[in-house]
Design goal:
The protein is of the alpha+beta class. It is 25% helix and 26% strand. The strands form four sheets. It has a seven-stranded mixed beta sheet, with no helix packed on it. The chain has a six-stranded mixed beta sheet with strand order 7-8-9-10-14-11, with helices on one face. About 6% of the residues have low confidence.
């Protein structure tokens, strides 16, 4: 059976009362965090938000890793095979001492436990459901594992439960008899996988948060086809505690390249959350930064750069140069390069602007 990951710190914790009365959580299909630059790009985008916990799908990294980043986040992921599936979390370091555990269920399901004080906890389950090309057996196994995970959480009397991720399902608009599961709002037509998700929510007494908030179409879709012609709502946040949901939104201006958009909600917490009194000590860097920069420049200089080259091609060249440089340096689970260069960030920004302009013109 999957082992329960240890907490970040086993040292005695000193807490102080904090006026923070809510936690913001979100889910996002990142379409790979296999390379370091993709992870850094995601962190750069997150720095501009107030999100506390981000669940991620399609991480595509193998094994189980807990990485204390040089940014403001702790990165946890679990996968069984490089390049396939994989799920995880990025959690703000402010919550470091509140992390009770990480628990891998499979390369499609992971669980995070957060201490809220007074014997209360928040349990967040991040998922990545099988796609439409998967067999019914794969889908059934996914929901069976998810059900077993939920049952164990429900036994914890004072726990709040959030389940979120890419469900690869279209649920559409709710019907009267489904009002405990679905609200009045939705997008598109329900498909077979959508019916399966609805039945699962009815059995587990879960509500689909997305459907209880009125949003215009442009603020509701969570996935779009590569050509931008098709948009659907397939990423969801589920809960058995609808009373804790304060707000919900889909981020349309998140500066990270994916065919999905982050789905975010703010959770009300009854009491103040205990937080550590001491600042978190950063882990010392072991990377030779000057040599790393030199290696990137050397790989970049070998490329055939032309003045008429488009932004995407230029970005790909920079990305590949960074990958090659990373492979020449020792790897560690505790130390990662902390920043993209200003030039790379500018290229990312320009690429995102071009993408938005292209989508708006359709």
């Amino acid at each position: 059976s999957p082992r329960e990951s240890q907490t970040i710190s086993s040292q005695k914790k000193n807490f102080t009362s904090c006026m923070k009365s809510h936690i913001s959580v979100g889910t996002f299909n990142v379409r790979t965090l296999l390379t370091e630059d993709r992870l850094v790009e995601l962190e750069q985008a997150l720095q501009k938000t107030d999100l506390d916990i981000l669940g991620v799908s399609e991480v595509r990294r193998a094994n189980e890793n807990i990485i204390i980043r040089q940014s403001n986040y702790i990165f946890y992921n679990y996968g069984t095979k490089r390049g396939i599936n994989g799920v995880g979390f990025l959690i703000k370091k402010d919550l470091r001492q509140n992390i009770k555990y990480f628990k891998p269920i499979s390369d499609r399901i992971v669980e995070l436990g957060i201490n809220l004080g007074s014997r209360r906890s928040l349990n967040v389950i991040q998922v990545y459901a099988p796609t439409s090309s998967s067999s019914e057996e794969e889908v059934d196994n996914f929901y069976k594992e998810l059900e077993e995970t939920i049952i164990k959480v429900k036994k914890k009397t004072q726990s709040k439960l959030i389940i979120m991720g890419d469900f690869n399902s279209q649920v559409g608009v709710g019907k009267k008899e489904e009002n405990q599961v679905l609200g009045m709002y939705g997008l598109g037509r329900r498909n077979q996988r959508g019916w399966k998700l609805i039945r699962f929510c009815q059995q587990q007494q879960l509500s689909i948060v997305n459907s209880f908030f009125k949003k215009r179409r442009g603020r509701r879709w969570t996935w779009q086809s590569p050509d931008g012609n098709y948009k659907n709502e397939i990423d969801f946040i589920l809960t058995k505690n609808r009373d804790i949901i304060q707000s919900y939104e889909v981020w349309s201006n998140f500066e990270y390249h994916s065919d999905h958009r982050p789905v975010v909600c703010k959770l009300k917490i009854d009491k103040t959350i205990p937080f550590p009194t001491k600042n978190i000590v950063e882990i010392q860097k072991t990377l030779d930064e000057e040599k790393f920069k030199s290696d990137i420049q050397n790989y970049f200089d070998k490329k055939d750069i032309t003045v008429d080259m488009d932004v995407q091609t230029m970005y790909d060249i920079i990305e590949n140069s960074i990958k090659l440089a990373i492979n020449n340096h020792p790897k560690t689970k505790k130390v990662e390069s902390s920043k993209l260069s200003e030039e790379t960030k500018e290229l990312i920004k320009r690429r995102e602007q071009m993408r938005r302009k292209k989508v708006k013109s359709k």
